[in-house]
Amino acid sequence: MSLEQIVPVLQLSIGPVIVISGAGLILLSMTNRYGRVIDRARSLAESIRRGSGGESIRFQDQLEILTRRARLLRLAIAFASTSLLLAAFLVIALFLVALLDLEATLLIIVLFVTCMITLILGLIVFIVDVNMSLSALKLEIDVEKHENS
Fold first, then answer.
1. Residue range 23-58, pLDDT digits in tens
2. Where are the domains of the chain?
3. Nearest to 111, CA basis, from 92, 129, 127
4. CA angle, 81 then 86 then 92, to 5°
5. Can you tell me the distance from the alpha carbon of 115 to that of 84, in angstroms, rounded to the nearest whole number?
6. pLDDT per position as a tens digit, 54-100
7. Which residue, among 104, 83, 110, 76, has the nearest Cα to 24 in the 3D structure?
């Protein structure tokens, strides 16, 4: 196969790399957020071990919210990672199908649709986490207002 013949094959198979790049940035954001949640949970757990009864209960409530958020973020990361993996398989499949002149339309469709569905699910779970974090912040602000009045 000559270079002139392989260039269109490479161009065809490189399209999903855009998905890989975008989903990779989303995954970076999710893992950073996950790390912050874990760090905050460790800090609260230490405060609970050292704290008094009244604050300890409030810290325990926050820790429960952080635990739910960590689970959501772990799920979002799993979906986004699966999407990235499927996009990589899609690149290989597109390249091989074009290079070897195979008929694998159904495989390409399944890989692409599954890739997009897992990415969408990851983003939905990520949005749920963002909303949960805002709800937790609102609860904390309400507690502060109540204590100061």
1. 999 999 999 999 999 999 999 888 888 876 667 777
2. 3-148
3. 92
4. 130
5. 7
6. 677 778 888 999 999 999 999 999 999 999 999 999 999 988 888 88
7. 83
